[in-house]
Amino acid sequence: MAPATEPLNLYEFTRAELGEWLARGGLNAVHAGRIWNYLYYTAVSSLDEMTDLPPRVRARLEQETALGRLPAEHESRSTDGFTRKYLLRLRDDRCIETVLMRFKGRVTACVSSQAGCAMGCVFCATGQMGFTRHLTAGEIVAQALHIDRVLRETSADSPALADPADNSPHGRHERLRNLVLMGMGEPLHNYDAVMKALEILRDPNGLGLGARKITLSTVGVVPGILRLAEEARPVHLAVSLHAATQEERAALVPAARAWPLDELMSACRTYCQKLRRRIFFEWTLIEGKNDGVEQAHAVGRLLSGLPAQVNLIPLNPTSGYQGGPSALEAARRFQSVLAGYSLPCTIRQRRGIDISAGCGQLAVLKG
Ligand code: SF4
Fold it and tell me: So which residues are the catalytic ones?
C-alpha cells in the first residue's frame, strides 16, 4: 500500500478492504459495492465518472485516493493483427510490458508481475535485463484493466470483433476473460501481490475472471508451488521445464541451482496429488540443444505418472542469446515421442514475434 502522504491506489484494495476503509472514515461500508462496480464493471477512467455516490463518499475518495491507471507510453501492433503490446508507465517512472493476444474464439492478456526478473533464464529478454522491483497488486490489476478497456473500445468501434459466444451481462462489448501471468517477472517470486491481484480480478462482482481462465507460469520456485498447493489457489499452473536433467536445466535456467530438478518434480507431484489438478509443462525448443528425440524420451520418463500436458514453444529470438528456434519438423517429432508416453502435447502458436511480444521477448524497449 502507498505511503500515507500519497493518494491510495484504489486498485490495491480488495472489496472487503474498501468497505473497511470507508467504515474507518465513518462512512457506510455498503458504498464499497457501488465503488467496486465503477472500478471493475463500468471500468471508469477517472473518479469524476463515479457520479452516483453520496457527496461525503465522493469527497473522501477525491481527497485520499486515486485510480492507479498505468498510462500507455507506446503501443505496438503485430502485422497479422492478432497481437498488441503496451509499454506501460509505473508511478515511479519505470516501465513494464503487457500483451493482448487474440486466438480463435478468445483473447488473452499476458501481464507482468515484476519490473525485470531475478531468475536470469539465458534465452529470455526480461532475464537479460535483471531485476528492478516487484509490482504491487494494484499494478498487476491495472494491466488487466488496461487490456479490458482496449477490448471494450475495440469491440465498440468494430462490433464484428466482439465474441458472439459472449452472453454475459456486459452486453455486446467484449471483456477480458483470459489471463496469463507469463509477462515480465516470476510470479511466485512476488507471491502475495500476485495472489491479491488475482483475488481482485476474480471477484464475481467485478471483472469476475474464472479460475479456469487464469494460468500462472513459474520457472520452478518450489516453495511457491508448495504454497499454491497448500492454499489450493484456483489457477492453472504452468512450469517452465526446458530440460530434463539437472545439469542441462541449470545451464538454461539458473534458478534450477536453488531449486534442483528432483525437488521441483517432487513439488509438482505434491501439487497434483493435493489438488487433483494437471500441470502444464512449458518446453522452449532450441534448435540442436534440447529438441532431439533422446530429450523427448527423457521428458516422457520424467513426467511419467503425472497428470501433465506439455506445451512446446519454438524459441523466440532475443539479442542476448545466440540459439535459434527448432524447425516445425523437429517439434512434431518431439510431440510424437511424447504421445508414446500418453503425454498430451501442443506446439504453441507463435504470436507477436515481429513486435517482440512473444514468450521470453518482453523487455522495456519499443517494438
Ligand atoms: S523466462 Fe520468466 S522466470 Fe525466466 S527470466 Fe524470463 S521472465 Fe524471468
Answer: 97, 359
